[in-house]
Amino acid sequence: MKFKKLLYTVLLFAGCMSASAQTPQTETVEEFNHHWFVQGQAGAQYTLGEICFGDLISPNVQVAGGYQFTPVWGLRLAVNAWQSKGGSTVGDAVYKWKWNYVAPTFDVTCDLVNLIWGYKPNRVFNAGILGGIGVNVAFKNDEAIAANGQIISDLRARAQAPSAGDVMYLDKLWGGTIARFMGRFGVYADFRVSKRVSLGLEVNANTTSDMYNSKDASNLDWYFNALGGVKVKLGKTTKMVEKKPCCVQEKVVEKIVEKIVEKPVEKIVYRDREIIKTEPLRKDIFFTISHSDVSRAEMVKVEDIAAYLNKYPQSKVTITGYADKGTGNAKINEKLAKKRSEIVADLLVNKFGIASSRITVESKGDTVQPYEQNDLNRVSICVAE
């Protein structure tokens, strides 16, 4: 008999030592995924010089392909090309010329908006800086050669140049095709049109050797490009990742079990605690902008809630609807959030046969934003326990 008393005491102690642990639940978050992109741009170039600003403007195009490694850092191969212009003023006469070039560069891009404020997949505006190195391949400098000859002819006519021998007014004059090392830095801005397409503006400054415009200025030559165009992202740009919130409390139900131990003279009742642990279930059902219908992918989560409620007949579910603060207004978002919670409740009742008395429907409108990312707040959060 003493052995039985000892056994019951050990069982009672083990039951008291059973604690409810926190049960992590998962939530789905949209995160950045590294991807390729292509880009096409067109605009104008200004080649630094001493004649009128408008006389040094020329057409410019650029195509690029690259890889976005992180929300902040990317690398691209850009090919910039078309035309540069130069000129010189001699007395009252202005001489102008143009030539063609192709300039491939490797550029590193840094998205300052994502760096400072963090990545958001549906952000409308992004901006950053870029820097790179490459080669400028220039050709068709015939107009500069002709301008040099005309300047010398005019100077000779005014007896300001030797009448015989080869004379070079443009002392950095070149012909044929010449390749020169170059550097680049610039700024850019992108405006999101869709998940894959954005319209962009770019301004970059490019520097190369003093021979570029055929004139000796004892410093580097510069040209500046202002471009606008389209950027297209390729492949999977984002991915859905399940993350665990900090903590979710677990409900502990205690069940009292009576056990009777008989003695020769009296009956002693020992009470043991049996801890039944019920893990709460949380499912976040996401919606598209301005909609309250449940997609096929999200319907799986509704089925999981119904299965849980059927497995635990005493359990209930609370459905809270939300709307994102970034779109609409407070009045519209209140109605939309309420409709998102009610549609989930209707599915549980009418499609899965769950009693409406086991369902609590709530709405927070856009007054509460459970997620940091704006678009993820188009959600109904369902907690069953």
Structural overview:
- With 385 residues, the protein is of the alpha+beta class.
- The chain folds into two domains: 34-235, Beta Barrel (Porin); 280-384, 2-Layer Sandwich (60s Ribosomal Protein L30, Chain: A), CATH 3.30.1330.
- It is 19% helix and 46% strand.
- The chain has five helices and 16 strands.
- The protein has an eight-stranded antiparallel beta barrel.
- A hairpin with a 2-residue loop joins strand 4 and strand 5.
- The longest helix has 21 residues, at 330-350.
Give me some keywords for this one.
385 residues, four-stranded mixed sheet, 2 domains, 16 strands, Porin, rod-shaped, single chain
Task: Note poorly predicted spans.
Answer: 18-23, 252-275
Number of helices: 5
Q: What proportion of the residues is helical, as a percent range?
A: 10-25%
CATH architecture of the largest domain: Beta Barrel
SSE topology string: HEEEEEHEHEEEEEEEHEHEE
Structural class: alpha+beta
Amino-to-carboxy terminus distance: 42 Å
Largest sheet: 8 strands, antiparallel, barrel
Q: Write down the CATH class of the largest domain.
A: Mainly Beta
Rough outline: rod-shaped
